């Protein structure tokens, strides 16, 4: 990459920044292969998460509502950040024009911030459900989860609008374009620090505290009495696990079910912290040093970590949740699931078509 020192100082590290892209064939090959692999796996996996929750009635729990929001946010990151990065790696220049620079940057940060907020939301939901089971009867509901998710998306959509005024097309000395920042470091530095605090530091600190309290209840406190366990199951709508054959097995104890869900969500939070750490650390350091560190290979490593964070969650659900495994298998076995999804989203006709109840009944058994 050829650019002068001042442009490097005033160019922060973006998720799909074309700065730092190497012209070597080796870099282009490795970059395109890894980004396409991670993005394809992540896009397919997150679409499956959305489908199984929307088309499987017993999967529509408050926690899974937040996981759907997380999946949509991860899809936004993979499409808006991962796929443009393939074009950057192949051509070494920005190919989407001024409108693409504004829109893609906006969608990148929208997906990133909604992802962080969704993780915070299901962390708080787990804390209430386990540590305050009586309160969970009115708080831990699907309708309230939908309202919270709507509020998160509206807040983040408005907050991320500031990026429309911060980015623009820049032309480097070699004639190649890049989607860069039109403001000086003194202006964008506070924005990065606010983002770093609101969407990374605070969610992680909150998660550490809340999961510590959850662990104390699950592993150190005596088993809750039967009314509490019954109330929790009724309020959070967590169905019993299924056996390996896909049929409904014997219900696990409330404590065992809560431990499994909490472990899965804790792994999601831990991977979020670890996979975002290289990029967040790089941006924080580059915001203060006189010459930013923009090594192409290290930037690629940071990007792959970000894309992997958006792609790995469906793998975690499949590995740690029997309910998700069964639902994924049902999705493979039932090609009519897409039709069921579109039918459920379409306006209802007053007259029921013959046989529709049979279709819905047959699908509910998957």
Automatic annotation (TrEMBL):
A GO CC term attached to the entry: membrane
Biological process terms in GO annotation: phospholipase C-activating G protein-coupled receptor signaling pathway
UniProt GO MF annotations: thyrotropin-releasing hormone receptor activity
Protein localization: Membrane
InterPro entries tied to this protein: GPCR_Rhodpsn (IPR000276), GPCR_Rhodpsn_7TM (IPR017452), TRH_rcpt_1 (IPR002120)
Residue ranges constituting the G-protein coupled receptors family 1 profile domain according to the UniProt record: 45-317
This protein's UniProt keywords: G-protein coupled receptor, Membrane, Receptor, Transducer, Transmembrane, Transmembrane helix
Transmembrane segments: 32-54, 66-86, 106-128, 148-167, 187-214, 260-277, 297-319
Pfam families, A to Z: 7tm_1
Subcellular location, principal: membrane
Domain of life: Eukaryota
Residue segments, region Disordered: 230-257
Function: Receptor for thyrotropin-releasing hormone (TRH). Upon ligand binding, this G-protein-coupled receptor triggers activation of the phosphatidylinositol (IP3)-calcium-protein kinase C (PKC) pathway.
Family to which the UniProt record says this protein belongs: Belongs to the G-protein coupled receptor 1 family.
UniProt-listed PANTHER family: THYROTROPIN-RELEASING HORMONE RECEPTOR
Protein's name according to its UniProt entry: Thyrotropin-releasing hormone receptor
